[in-house]
Amino acid sequence: EGPHSTIPEDEFFDAVETGLDKIEEDRQLRVRLKYQSQQSQISNAGSLHSPSAETEDEIPQLSEDFGTGAQAQSHKLWPEIDRICTEQLTQARQGVGEDGNGWQLFADEGEMKMYRREEEVDGMVIDPLKSCHVVKGVTAREMCHYFFDPAYRNDWETTLEDVQIVDNVAPDTLVFLQTYKRIWPASQRDALFWSHMRRITDNVDTGANDVWVVCNHSNQNEEYPPANQGKCVRIYLTVILVCQTYLTPGKDSKTATRDDLTCKITYCSTVNPGGWAPATVLRAIYKKEYPKFLKRFTGYVVDQCKAKPIMY
User: Fold this and answer.
1) Nearest to 263 by CA among 133, 151, 70
2) What is the pTM of this model?
3) Domain assignment of residue 207, yes or no
């Protein structure tokens, strides 16, 4: 990858696609091995451990002000975090067919629909993406918990090589430096961004039991590792995951079972990948990889939650 690359675009795409497929095959193998290991542990343990006791331990014990930003408000990043979260939530709530705003449907698989709008800055593709999905059996908080918490990220974000917390702002607000695996012939990438998980209490989403979001936004200041130093090209991103919990009519959070839960998801992202990857290659990769990512992530959360107490 570079301004003077002699690799034809179709060969560039084929090479990246092959690399991504190999990473996905490795992930599926790890999942199978992990499952087999868990099954072996269960059969060996017999009745020595109570499953209910184990699942109770897995409910995160977080303070009552988690998701309010209360503990992050004294940090110098807070004004930016609060402003961008509010802006992104407003945009996520807007429809895709309003005002002829250029959204194009590019994936339609059951409940999942994905739209993109073609945009370029200085010749670099930064197409905004908007996805809508509906998933049964989990809550908004559970979906956001697994998206936000770095302990689980390697399980579902397949191209990650390393995750570092460079600023522990608050339990619901972290600054990450993520390094991604190099996929030849593209250069290796990294991203530095804050991530904030928030409960939304503005009562705009009528009918929803609760609403949670995770917003990620690239940030750079003198305290954090600088961009484009060494082997990595810096990615710049803005992402919001908006999740709403809906319960079966007549049920509430005390009486509902997982069969009564529906999670409505809106995922919006704008990513500037940096570097010199050809526009046609980037768009072809996005079209293939984004649907796989959203199905993989939501399926992972459903699988993680099915045997655990419900977290609201």
Assistant:
1) 133
2) 0.85
3) yes
- Go through the chain and tell me how many residues it has: 312
Residue ranges of the alpha helices (H) in the chain? 9-45, 51-57, 78-93, 140-148, 153-156, 279-305
Could you tell me which residues come within 8 angstroms of residue 256 by beta carbon, excluding any fewer than 6 positions away?
247, 248, 310
pLDDT (tens digit per residue) in 188-242:
999 999 999 999 999 999 899 999 999 999 998 788 889 988 889 999 999 999 9
Instruction: Give the pLDDT confidence score for residue 27 in this predicted structure.
Output: 66
| Ranges 23-32, 42-51, 114-123: which has the least confidence | 42-51
Number of domains in the chain: 1
Residue 15 lies in a domain: no
Cα 116 from Cα 128, distance rounded (Å): 6
Q: What is the DSSP string of 102-166?
A: --EEEEEETTEEEEE---EETTEE---EEEEEEEES--HHHHHHHHH-GGGHHHH-TTEEEEEEE
The label of the residue with tokens 């919001």 reads 240
Q: What is the CATH number of the domain that holds 262?
A: 3.30.530.20
Boundaries of domain holding 119: 77-306
pLDDT, tens digit (0-9, with 9 covering 90-100), for 70-92:
999 999 999 999 999 999 999 99
Helices 279-305 and 140-148, axial angle in degrees (round to 10): 120
